Amino acid sequence: MNDIKHNIDESNWQELVKNARDAYHKAYAPYSNFKVGTAAMTTDNRIVQGCNVENASYGLTVCAERNCIAQGVIGHEADEPLRFSVIVIYTEQVKLTPPCGACRQVISEFFPKSAQVIAINHLNQQQQWTVEQILPSAFTPDALINAN
Ligand code: THU
After folding, report:
1. CA separation for the pair 127, 125 (Å, rounded)
2. What is the pLDDT of residues 12-49, one digit of tens each?
3. What is the DSSP letter of 99?
4. What residues make up the domain containing 49?
5. Whose CA is nearest to atom 6 of ligand 1?
């Protein structure tokens, strides 16, 4: 599980892990006590963070991955569409945390199929997938191309 092969430059990798860990410590998860922190890199090399935010009305909880993407959207000013190259999902669980189904769909909106999804924990155990692996045959914006 350790020493996975990713093509992220070492200083970017360290920065992504640090940002995901810092976000983890800000998670608002009083109901599940299951904190998640994420950090993603945009293709123009911005790092954005997310954490899960729970709610007393449990179903309104938003996962760390989707909050991370929302931060990317807010900070995006370029003319080109927003794209991400990698998302790191940090937990302090022995069992690594892959993105939930809803997050896989939202990831597919903004990440190319070859982008990396990397789960990591406090023991530095890691697991990696491509976006295509976590949601094959995703429903993406190009499916709507003839709708208007
Ligand atoms: N959660 C995430 O933030 N990301 C995931 O990939 C899995 C689940 C959150 C939602 C909820 O606050 C808690 O973890 C337990 O499901």
Report:
1. 7
2. 999 999 999 999 999 999 999 999 999 999 999 999 99
3. P
4. 10-145
5. 99
Residue 3 is assigned to a structural domain of this protein:
no
Tokens of 46: 């911005």
127 confidence band (pLDDT: 50, 70, 90): very high
Q: 51 CB under 6 A from ligand 1?
A: no
* Active site (annotated) includes residue 10: no
Ligand 1 atom nearest to 35, measured from its CA: 14
Q: How confident is the model at residue 148 (pLDDT cuts 50, 70, 90)?
A: low
Q: Which of 65, 80, 92, 132 is catalytic?
A: 65
CATH number of the CATH domain containing 81:
3.40.140.10
Could you give the CA distance from residue 46 to residue 50 in angstroms, rounded to a whole number? 13
Cα–Cα distance between 101 and 78 in angstroms, integer? Answer: 29
Number of domains in the chain: 1
